[in-house]
Predict the 3D structure of the following.
Amino acid sequence: MKKVEVVAAIIKYENQLLCVQRPQSKLKYVSEKFEFPGGKIEPNETRKEALKRELNEELNLDVIIGEYFMTVIHIYPDFELTMHSFFVEVDSNEIKLNEHISQKWLSSKELLELDWAAADLPIVDKLIKL
């Protein structure tokens, strides 16, 4: 089974967290699901370097990556995903979506209102308990 290693950002502005919605995909299990933004780690990149690059590509954000939060290993039907998440604080909730179809800023208590990608659910569950 193919293994993919990615990074994800838990972006905070005031007391709200950024949730972004994936576009339609041939992979039904992630199509139009909400996720924390991020992406694949390229060869010779650290996790934080990859996340900084991905946030710039996806959201036009230039940020300082904060503390590590948790790692999730999730097996999807055709690949195994290892996702490392980090906190990121931003000065504004104004972002530009370059790849996602929508965004929501929610409190941790509101996170379960969304239809999340399965790999992101352990992060959601842990955030709700903080």
Summary: Residues 47-59 form the longest helix (13 residues). The chain has a mean pLDDT of 96. The beta strands are 2-13, 16-21, 34-35, 38-40, 68-76, 79-89, 102-106. The chain has two helices and seven strands.
